[in-house]
Structures are given as C-alpha cells and as structure tokens.
C-alpha cells in the first residue's frame, strides 16, 4: 500500500473515533443536554430561594424597626388585646340550621 492510503485510513479512523466521542463519549451531546437541564433546574430553585430569602429579610427588617408589625402579629396570630380593650367576637349563624331568615 502506498503511504497516502495509510494516511487516509489513519485520518478516517481518527474521524470515526472523534465522532464516537461526540455522540457516545463522556462529553456526549446527550450528556451535555442533561447537564444543561440540571443547571436550568438549579437556577430556578436558586431564584425561588432568593425570593424567599428577600421576603424573610424584609420581615426581619420590619420586626426590628417597627412595633406595629409586632403588634399586628400578636393580635392576628396570638389573639392578644391591650389592657384597656374589650374583645368582641361575632359569629354568623350556620347555614342550613332550619331557622327562617328575617
């Protein structure tokens, strides 16, 4: 065989090997797609965590700076009232109780 034929066969072999690595190897097209998908999911999770952290930081800032927020939370979540206040709870009658409406 002539040397040009060997060079051609060698180059074709190298080309086949490179193509195999691109499609089936460690850094294949499918693996790159999967990694990009994972990165996109991680970025989305990071963005959600960042937004949650911002909300929590704003709440902490409000709690440190203002007593109004503390008072509002105490009233709504704990049901607390001031010493000179009277707590009045109004309940609506249950629907379908059989009493005619007037």
Give a description of the structure.
With 102 residues, the protein is mainly α. Helix content is 70%, strand content 0%. Helix 2 packs across helix 3. The longest helix is centred in the middle third of the chain and has 37 residues.
Structural class: mainly alpha
Characterize the biggest β-sheet. none
Q: Quickly count the helices.
A: 3
Q: Considering DSSP H and I runs of 4 or more, what fraction of the residues is helical?
A: 55-70%
Would you tell me the overall average pLDDT?
A: 83
Overall radius of gyration:
35 Å
The fraction of residues assigned to DSSP E strands is under 5%
* Spatial shape: rod-shaped
Order of helical and strand elements: HHH
Number of strands: 0
Q: Stretches where pLDDT falls below 50 for ≥5 residues?
A: none
End-to-end separation: 111 Å
Helices and strands in order:
Layout lengths: L2 H22 L4 H37 L1 H12 L24
Helix pairs in contact: 2-3
List keywords for this structure.
102 residues, mainly alpha
Short description:
This protein has 102 residues and is mostly helical.
